[in-house]
């Protein structure tokens, strides 16, 4: 009642006839490698940007979420830890259908790639991002996508004319491709509270 914690976004524009997994499967991504991000997304004047720091608490959160989902009868595929490079994470993303996709990682919104285009998504290694385009390319669209990543829920930041589609809000894009439930942060995420929220959400929803 005192703090604006929850913001609900509804859209009448979304894909019908979505193919989704009938099995209790989940992919949990946590603190993947982000090596090479700074080179792929330089600062405005062309200087190399530092790679984001490792998110130790996000890894702990992902491990806790994986344990919670296992306890609820889900077969969990983990992609957790900074040894998980982009090629490893994407291989797991496309390996099989998932009902749940949970991500605890760095997120960026409307950051300019060295090719000049604005990009938004979950940060992986080698300048690769997971965006709605990658989720759309999965064999089946997840029913639930939970993104504990800073700023991926931003929907009101202005985007310049001609900006690449990847610069659009990840949350809006996920809804458009048919994800039934999208939980995403529009502000910096406190890891400890995010972990408690995530575990409680799944326990209450899936019991």
Features:
single chain, 207 residues, alpha/beta, 5-stranded parallel β-sheet, 3-stranded antiparallel β-sheet, 6 helices, 8 strands, 27% helix, globular
Helix content: 25-40%
How would you classify the helix and strand content by structural class? alpha/beta
Q: How much of the polypeptide forms β-strand, as a percent range?
A: 15-25%
Distance between the termini: 27 Å
Tally of alpha and pi helices: 6
Query: What is the overall pLDDT average?
Result: 80
Note poorly predicted spans: 158-168
What gross morphology would you assign? globular
Task: Describe the structure in your own words.
- By secondary structure, this protein is an alpha/beta fold.
- Helices cover 27% and strands 19% of the residues.
- The protein has six helices and eight strands.
- It has helices spanning 37-40, 56-71, 86-93, 132-136, 170-176, 191-206; strands at residues 25-30, 75-80, 100-104, 107-112, 118-123, 129-130, 144-148, 181-184.
- The strands form two sheets. It has a five-stranded parallel β-sheet, sandwiched between helices. The chain has a three-stranded antiparallel β-sheet with strand order 4-5-6.
- Strand 5 (118-123) and strand 6 (129-130) form a beta hairpin.
- Helix 2 (56-71) runs parallel beside helix 6.
- The model is unreliable at 158-168 (pLDDT under 50).
